[in-house]
Each structure stands twice: as C-alpha cells, then as structure tokens.
Input
Amino acid sequence: MIWNRLKYVLSPQFDIYRTVAGIVRDCVADIGFGTGFGTHLLTLNAKEVYGYEIDERAIRFAQEVFPFKTLHFNYGDIIRGFDQDIFDYVVMIDVIEHIKEDAKAVENVGHMLRSDGSFICSTPNRLSRYRKAETHCREYSPDEFECLLRGVFPSVWLRNYCLEPLASKTENPILAICQMKEK
Output
C-alpha cells in the first residue's frame, strides 16, 4: 500500500493536482480522489473541498491522513449523481477512462456545477506512447475527449498539465477545462 501511495506522488497526477490547485476557488468537488493526496492540495485556494470515491478503504485512508476542517471525504458514485448546482468547480483527474458510462458521468458533472462553474478533467492520451492500463474502460484521443465533453459543455479547452495548449495530438496527458457558458 505504501508503494502505491509513493507511486502516486511521483506520477503526473501530482503535477496536475498542483496546477489545478492554483485555479480552483470556493466550493470544489473532486471525483474519484483515490488516496486523497491530490484532493488535499485543492484546499490551498478553495474554501471547501468535497472528495467523492467509491472505494471505502480509500475513503477511510484519506479521512485518517488528511483530517482538515475544509476537506470532506465521502462515498459517491458519479453515475448515480450528486447534489445539483452547488459546486463552483468539479475536478476529475485520470478517472473518466475508468468509467464505462462516461457520457452519463459527464452529464452528472454538469448537474453538479453552478451555472458559472467549471469542470477540470484529465485523461491519458491514447495516441501517446505511454503504457496502457488494463483497468481503463476506454482511452481517448484529444478529438474524442473533446467530443465527449462537448456533449454537455459548450466551452471546452484542451491543455497539457501546465495549462498550455496541446503542442501535438500525442501530448500526454490531456487536461480539459470546461464551462457551461460560451466564452
């Protein structure tokens, strides 16, 4: 278990969370938080952060390791949905590729957000040469990922983990910033 936690800290997910922590404000949801390590970084600028996970052991681990007043770890299944119109930001870092009903998950994220809220989502790029994971239900090219997100969000910007525009169709990972309102 400790090795899995260390691998997480050394992975690109840590860099993504650190970058996203500089963006999010106010009330934030993190879907599929895993260890909670990235989720706790979101508290740097957010007033309240709610982490949702379907793995009960991960929830207990995160609650024990990160007992902060503004950080809440709960059971939650994005396919079943959550409270509506309450979050300023919803974050989903390297989770969407594990969800069979990806379009339903994105639709439910849209319901969670306030009208001016933002969805920040990352996924590995299937066009890159990284090692593929057997636990992925599917993987996306940048075009496929953008198409999925545009099913709910009219404004979608694809970026790298530093928030710069993608330099190529093979850049990995893909980070999307989505908004309900056109900009």
Notes: The beta strands are 26-31, 46-53, 71-75, 87-93, 113-123, 155-159, 174-179. Residues 16 and 61 are 21 Å apart (CA to CA). The radius of gyration is 15 Å. Helices lie at 2-10, 12-21, 37-41, 56-65, 102-112, 142-150.
